Amino acid sequence: MFLERIGFIIWVSDLKAARSLEKYGSIHYMSRKMHYVVIYMNAERADDTVRNIQRLPFVKRIERSYRNEIKTEYNSNVEDKTRFYSL
């Protein structure tokens, strides 16, 4: 139903030219201060797309985002310590 998506952080030297990355995937965020772009693309074609992006002259380096692999379900097995601090 939903396509598998992978996130990448692309470090760039020119943010104006980085707008052209939109044709490779969905741009989620562009940092003007630190000069990087967060982009999401289909997992099936990610390898080919990353090779094409690396060839662009304004791209410094590409890192994979591991955000979807981080555990987001938390459990609270910690006992409540409020009774120790009451008056």
Please supply descriptive tags for the structure shown above.
alpha+beta; 4-stranded antiparallel sheet; 87 residues; 15% helix
Overview of this protein structure:
There is one protein chain. This protein has 87 residues and is of the alpha+beta class. It has helices at 15-18, 46-54, and strands at residues 5-12, 26-31, 36-42, 59-64. It has a four-stranded antiparallel sheet, covered by helices on one side. The protein is elongated, with a radius of gyration of 20 Å. The chain starts with a strand and ends in a 23-residue tail after the last strand. The mean pLDDT is 89.
Protein topology:
Layout: E1 5-12, H1 15-18, E2 26-31, E3 36-42, H2 46-54, E4 59-64
Antiparallel strand pairs: 1-3, 1-4, 2-3
Largest sheet: 4 strands, antiparallel
Unreliable segments of 5+ consecutive residues: none
Helix content: 10-25%
Task: Please tell me how large the radius of gyration is.
Answer: 20 Å
Q: Which strand order does the major sheet show?
A: 2-3-1-4
Mean pLDDT: 89
Assembly category: single chain
- Coarse shape: elongated
| Secondary structure tally: strands | 4
**End-to-end gap:** 56 Å
Beta-strand content estimate = 25-35%
Number of helices: 2
Order of helices and strands: EHEEHE
Query: What is the SS-derived class?
Result: alpha+beta
Summarize the structure.
Helices cover 15% and strands 31% of the residues.
